[in-house]
Amino acid sequence: MPDEAQNWTTQDVATVLRYLGSDPETGLDSSEARSRLQRYGPNELQEQGGRGPLLMLGEQFSSTMVLILIGAAVISAFLGKPTETVAITAIVLLFALLGFVQEYRAERAMAALKQLAVPVVRVRRDGSVREISARELVPGDIVYLETGNLVPADLRLIESVNLRIQEAALTGESEPVDKETAALQKADLPLAERRNMAYMGTVVTYGRGTAVVVATGMETELGRIAELLQAVAPEATPLQRRLDQVGKALAVLGAVVAVLVLVIGVLRGEPLNDMFLTAVSVAVAVVPEGLPAVVTVTLALGAQRMLARNALIRKLPAVETLGSVTIIASDKTGTLTINRMTVTVIDVAGHTLELTGTAQRPPSGLARPVEEPLVEQPPTIALVLAVGALANDASLQPDPESGRYLPVGDPTEGALLVASRQAGIGPDALRAALPRVGEAPFDSERKRMTTVHRLPEPLPSSLQPLQNVATPFVAFTKGAVDGLLQISTHVWEDGRAVPLTDAWRERIERANEQLAANGMRVLGMAFRAVPVEKAEEPAEALEQALTFAGLVGMIDPPRPEVKEAVATCKRAGIRPLMITGDHPLTARFIADDLGIATNGRVKTGQDLDRLSPVELAQVVGEVSIYARVAPEHKLRLVEDLRAQGHVVAMTGDGVNDAPALKRADIGVAMGITGTDVSKEAADMVLVDDNFATIVSAIEEGRVIYDNIRRFVKFSIAGNVGKVLVMLLAPVLVGANVALLPLQLLWLNLLTDGLLGLGLGMEPAERETMQRPPRSPQAGLFDGGLRRHIAWVGVLIGFAALAVGRAYYEPGDVEGGTWQTMIFTALAFMQIGQALASRSTESSLLSIGLRSNRPMLFLVLITIILQLLVIYVPFLDAFFNITPLALQDLGVAAFLGLVVLAAIEVEKWLLRRRPQGERRG
Ligand code: ATP
Q1: pLDDT tens digits, residue range 641-682?
Q2: C-alpha distances in angstroms, 63 versus 293, 296, 592, 663?
Q3: Annotated active-site residue in 154, 331, 640, 706
Q4: Residues 728-743: what's their mean pLDDT?
Q5: CA distance linking residue 391 with residue 478, whole number of Å
Q6: Nearest-CA residue for atom 5 of ligand 1
Q7: In which region does residue 452 sit, left (phi positive, over 0), alpha (psi from -120 to 50) or beta (all else)?
């Protein structure tokens, strides 16, 4: 099939379909689709530069750390110390394996997340429309495109309704291209001119269409260039970059200390060979080997935990940035509310119909409120409902379980269909009777949509008011009332159009505001006779000189869990903002209800347009509700908030929201209602569209950052202790070499490898969401970390030295009890340190040992491994150890408790400090 690729454009639709063995009415059948999937493979681009497991394992051996160790092993071999060589090699392998397993897990976790982010495509298969993953598309599939979709494969268009596609990804041209279906005359046109094709990776910015898949995966135009594209390196998070620097600085420090040890040793007359080996392992002891692996794993597992709470992370740095979010700017509909609209009020000149009685107050209406029975509608109410059903892309599908009709599509439109059905105006029959011949789709700038229909003879009863329309076509418009009034010239009153005077405008605006003030979304309905078929007319030409027919008010209740989430935000020093396309009063009602509004002030998009940058900066500081905003306002708000130093999470679902999502620190897209384009632009996708999920993700983000800090603090303090022991032993103990290289490596493996991993799995602390966000400028070591590392390092180091001194007799040799005591005391002290470091401020007693079970398990393993080394004869010899008497072991374990207690005292002191002085 690829050979024919150039011909897709010059053949007519029927020929292309015949060639592909497809039929737009039925689509492919499942078995054919399956066999084509086998033949052509999944529709995905092969990733360039993806790291296979072998490469990943190989990389473990190329880190500076491992190279130093390998050097040490080789040197030992030359020095005639085969045991050391074997042992160091074994430890290198262990480290490499540990690093590999952790990184592999992290990579798998991220790959799984990526799979979830593949777009879903609407296709026709076996005669019905269904949603499948874009990966499963095969040539011949019939695909439906709508605004906001990413084009999922290379397609030949078979239907285009104002379809416009932005092809910058392929052609570099950012202006969207109008698409059509007719065969093109010339073959071999450049991509940008193939107007009846849609290419993978491009974006539908307007209209809708149907198309047949002609190429998938690497056979697509994008696939062809994908091979040429540079592989995108996985983005390192700021923290990873910072820790990389820390690692490098420590490596330099390690080298300096190593040279010091070497020089001191040689000056004291130690054999050069021994000292050389010791120096190398001191260098290794300084560097926290586990750091990169623990950080990668903590971030990746954190992303998985976020997914379990319905937040899908698309970019790893987001995991970390989430922890410092200071503002959540959220859409209203669907994120703060449940997005289940119900029409409750219909208001036309002279009549008001309350559908369910759920409106909080009877609206005043355009005129006097009159209760009407549901069945026999006054003609204008029926007309309003008919407009709502016709200018509408949703549908009603029977639910096999309840037997009721459920709306499918945009909830606003679904609600209108349900209402018209309840009122006895069969929407399906109406649509069949008035075929749609043109349309101007909804967009969030105009905030309305229009469809053009051919009028049948005779007119259905709901459209009787239109019987005097002399044209064969009529346009129906529904949308935001304020905008609609601006383009209306008449209002429908008692069966005729009367001029829309100022008095009328005022009455309609008042009715609109009254409904909105009760939290309702209000849509106006209007119509206009059009003489000729206006299928291709631009929206501006179609939407003018309308006759206003009436208002529909619908409610969309807040999500029950959001109120609590908003309160949590506020406790956590995060300011929630509402940014909505809806009416200011609707916005304020919902914001009040949820506790978002502090002062009830609302600004509209128009207000924002009028403000200077300075004024805007002030407004943004004070106002939490923004209504009637268009996507470009979102962009302005994000930029302004960021300029003020805020870290902004912003939600968005439409195509036009993509720039704001990209600009935000955390762009948040909607998993259910969001367009592909918004998801592509986002850092995080809410699987359930729920505001509360953002708050959960922020909590996880804070936990992850805390855990990484915990690990850094634990690991570096421990290493400071070990280095002190190595440096000061000649002076304070009398022994030249406090610990042998192997013993040091073993300790690092236990602490960084096992205990460190346990710290990375610490669950949320109680006060995680009760303190202000971490400042993005704050360094990793701010908030007392340096002080803690210093004193804990000194404590551990001097305690170990004291033990050494107590057990050392002049003339003792290496491997004696004194050395085993230093070795074992260090192991136990680091266990105590790890347990006490689990919480920044709370005592271990109050959080309980069992609140981090993996840690408990890892502590047990560490103890068992340490005891094995001390008491299994073969290992003794290997590590040069003397088995300890029980009371000596008790001394070492006691020192572990001392360190634990000391850190607990530090936390107790921290808890007693006033709130403001605690660490952020
Ligand atoms: P939020 O930003 O809070 O999620 P939203 O995204 O629902 O709000 P839009 O969808 O941009 O906001 O809607 C803005 C306005 O456009 C609504 O207040 C309504 O008046 C109008 N509107 C919404 N949906 C439709 C529709 N399907 N047809 C016509 N007009 C609509």
Answers
A1: 999 889 999 999 887 888 899 899 999 999 888 888 888 888
A2: 12, 15, 56, 35
A3: 331
A4: 82
A5: 7
A6: 581
A7: beta
Q: Looking at the CA of residue 587, tell me the nearest atom of ligand 1.
A: 3
Instruction: Identify whether 331 is a catalytic site residue.
Output: yes
Say what the pTM is.
0.81
What string of DSSP letters covers 253-290? HHHHHHHHHHHHHHHTT--HHHHHHHHHHHHHHHS-TT
**Non-local CB neighbours of 54 within 8 Å, separated by 6+ positions:** none
Kindly state if the Cβ of 521 falls inside 6 Å of ligand 1. yes
Ligand 1 geometric centre to CA of 324 (Å) = 31
Return the H-helix or E-strand segment holding 193: none
| Nearest CA residue ID for atom 17, ligand 1 | 582
pLDDT digits (tens, 9 = 90+) for 165-210: 988 777 777 788 999 988 888 887 888 889 999 998 888 988 889 9
Residue with token string 């020095």: 79
**Rounded (10°) CA dihedral 497, 498, 501, 506:** -60
Residue 332 Cβ < 6 Å to ligand 1: yes
d(CA 359, CA 344): 6
Q: State if residue 442 touches ligand 1 by the CB under 6 angstroms criterion.
A: yes
* Cβ-count burial 103-132 (b if 16+ within 10 Å, e if not): bebbbebbeebeeebbbebbbbbeeeeeeb
Locus of tokens 């899908």: 312
Beta bridge partners, 649, equal 328, 666
Shortest-distance atom of ligand 1 to CA 578: 3
Q: Tell me the helices (H) and strands (E) count for the chain, helix number first.
A: 33, 26
**Helix (H), strand (E) at residue 885:** none
Q: Please state whether beta strands 575-579 and 625-627 pair in parallel, antiparallel, or not at all (unpaired).
A: parallel
**Phi/psi of residue 778, each to 5°?**
-65, 135
- Cβ–ligand 1 distance for 689 under 6 Å, the answer no
393 lines ligand 1 (CB under 6 A): no
Cα angle: 621, vertex 623, 629; to 5 degrees: 115
Q: Is the dihedral of CA 222, 226, 229, 231 positive or negative?
A: positive
Q: CA-CA distance, 549 to 523, in Å (whole number)?
A: 11
Provide the CB-side half-sphere exposure for 35 (13 A, CA).
4
Cα dihedral 400, 405, 406, 407 sign: positive
Distance 685 CA to ligand 1 centre (A): 21
pLDDT greater at residue 891 or residue 85: 891
CB atoms within 10 A of CB 838: 23
- Best substitution site from 444, 449, 670 to test ligand 1's pocket, by max atoms within 8 Å of Cβ? 444
**Which range, 152-161, 775-784, 825-834, has the best average confidence (pLDDT)?**
825-834
Q: Decide whether any atom of ligand 1 lies within 6 Å of the 580 Cβ.
A: yes
> Three-state DSSP class for 650?
strand
